[in-house]
């Protein structure tokens, strides 16, 4: 299979859009997150490397803490056929207690995306907290 530069650029744009949609989903809730994840996806997260399936991760993330802001910097994309690997520094502002202002959290994140008929979907994610945020 020959990939033209136009096709590669279109693929990269689609993955950038999937990454942007993920950041929005973090602020919209559990259903928005699971809609972007494959049913058999896994997420490695937390200070002790908790491993969850898609629904458990989305439920844990949304019910334990509410994201009010999320952005990514230094996004890097590698495409291998129907798989894309992204890395970035992700910053989130999270409400842990409604009586306190949102708390900034920064993570180094790797996501593995798979091309599907519905678009790019998250197959795997690994988040590592950066303490203190840089």
What topology emerges from the helices and strands here?
Elements lengths: L4 H24 L1 H6 L1 E9 L4 E4 H11 L1 E15 L2 E13 L7 E14 L2 E11 L5
Parallel strand pairs: 1-6
Antiparallel strand pairs: 1-2, 3-4, 4-5, 5-6
Question: In a few lines, what is going on in this structure?
Answer:
This protein is α+β, with helices and mostly antiparallel strands. The chain has helices spanning about 5-30, 30-35, 55-65; strands at about 35-45, 50-55, 65-80, 85-95, 105-115, 120-130.
Can you walk me through this structure?
- 31% of the residues lie in helices and 49% in strands.
- The protein has 134 residues and is α+β, with helices and mostly antiparallel strands.
- A 6-stranded mixed β-sheet has the order 2-1-6-5-4-3.
- A hairpin with a 2-residue loop joins β3 and β4 (83-95).
- The protein is globular.
- The model has no long low-confidence stretch (mean pLDDT 92).
Number of helices: 3
Q: Which shape, going by the Cα principal axes?
A: globular
Kindly provide the radius of gyration, computed on alpha-carbon positions and rounded to a whole number of angstroms. Answer: 15 Å
Terminal-residue CA separation: 42 Å
For the biggest sheet, the summary is: 6 strands, mixed
The proportion of strand residues reads: over 45%
Number of strands: 6
Overall pLDDT score: 92
Which secondary-structure class do the elements indicate?
A: alpha+beta
């Amino acid at each position: 299979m020959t990939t033209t530069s136009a096709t590669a650029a279109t693929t990269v744009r689609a993955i950038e859009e999937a990454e942007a949609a993920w950041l929005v989903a973090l602020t919209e809730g559990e259903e928005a997150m699971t809609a972007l994840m494959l049913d058999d996806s896994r997420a490695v997260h937390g200070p002790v490397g908790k491993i969850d399936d898609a629904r458990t991760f989305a439920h844990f993330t949304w019910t334990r803490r509410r994201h009010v802001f999320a952005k990514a910097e230094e996004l890097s994309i590698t495409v291998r056929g129907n798989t894309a690997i992204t890395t970035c520094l992700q910053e989130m502002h999270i409400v842990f207690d409604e009586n306190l202002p949102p708390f900034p959290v920064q993570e180094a994140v790797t996501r593995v995306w798979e091309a599907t008929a519905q678009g790019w979907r998250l197959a795997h994610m690994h988040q590592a907290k950066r303490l203190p945020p840089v």
